[in-house]
Design a protein that fits this description.
The chain is about 20% helix and about 35% strand. The protein is an alpha+beta fold and about 300 residues long.
Length: about 300
């Protein structure tokens, strides 16, 4: 990104950070990044920190470690009112979820205390700066001030009245000349095997993209030169293969290489039929989105903006 654009963006963000400016405001969030996966770090009154994993493709969950920090016993019932998450968020100037759902999930992920998913992202505007590892909540923005290089439609499932009924975002990409509909999934992740660690020069938990088995096998047949790591993703009971796709068109921007982990076709059939506005074949993760540098995910306008 040219230096002049970087300075312009920083000046704009700084001017908005301290409150409304000409009807616009922006709030820097207390986040950390790891392998382009995003974690929200929320200070608690006892000087502890509640760490929530941010995932546009997920739901709102609290893990055992999070309930322990908040001194709440696990239950199958909705925990939202018991946890007082809105109060904690508002005390720290963090946006709250539009839907007051929060359930216990017995997840053993020791990196975080819970997940914030579609209910938290919905109806808001987010600026994700992968380049500088920052994230902002925005009330509005001026297209005249920001240098926007691409505007990409984002779709949602709607009811008969045209209102959004599910806030899982869908986006179209072009790979090898084929237009594919995918879940826009900032939280898609893989556990890399030793072989994948060596191949990708990255270890442990990594951001990833997903593709259904049918498309994966088609790519293998058409492009034997595309590198495949057998059993590269060990996050499931049975390790799944990972394929290296040299280029993915997101709007007019080509990013790559992008690694896709194989998943059973049925996963996306079920998701498409129940949560999406169209049939999807995979999920576009942060390993691809991060290559765009800085993006605005605008839920009200149903679009993804790529900043220059």
């Amino acid at each position: 990104m040219p230096v002049r654009v970087t300075k312009l963006l920083l000046i704009t963000l700084m001017s908005w950070s301290f409150g409304p400016t000409n009807g616009q405001s922006i709030k820097a969030l207390p986040v950390s990044f790891s392998a382009n996966l995003i974690y929200l770090n929320i200070p608690l009154p006892d000087n502890d920190t509640l760490v929530m994993y941010l995932d546009t493709g997920g739901k709102n969950f609290m893990y055992k470690s999070g309930l322990k920090k908040l001194e709440i016993r696990p239950t199958r019932k909705n925990l939202h009112s018991r946890v007082h998450l809105d109060e904690i968020f508002l005390q720290n100037s963090i946006p709250v979820s539009y839907k007051k759902d929060l359930y216990f999930l017995n997840d053993k992920d020791n990196r975080c205390d819970g997940m914030l998913g579609r209910e938290w992202y919905a109806n808001k505007i987010w600026l994700i700066d992968y380049r500088n590892q920052q994230m902002f909540a925005m009330e509005s923005y001026s297209e005249e001030i920001l240098s926007i290089s691409a505007t990409i439609p984002v779709s949602f499932r709607k009811d008969t009245s045209g209102s959004i009924s599910n806030h899982l975002p869908g986006v179209q990409v072009v790979i090898d000349g084929d237009t594919l509909s995918m879940l826009l999934d900032t939280g898609a992740q893989a556990q890399l095997s030793d072989q994948a660690t060596s191949a990708f020069n990255q270890s442990g938990t990594s951001s990833i993209s997903f593709i259904d088995q049918s498309t994966f096998e088609k790519w293998e047949q058409l492009h034997p030169d595309w590198r495949v790591v057998k059993g590269g993703d060990t996050s499931l009971r049975v390790a799944e293969d990972i394929i290296e796709v040299p280029g993915v068109n997101i709007g007019d921007t080509v990013v790559g290489p992008v690694y896709f982990a194989k998943r059973a076709d049925q996963n996306f059939v079920v998701m498409s039929n129940n949560f999406m506005d169209q049939q999807i074949t995979g999920a576009l993760g942060a390993n691809a989105l991060s290559q765009l540098g800085q993006i605005i995910l605008d839920y009200p306008q149903q679009r993804l903006l790529v900043l220059e």
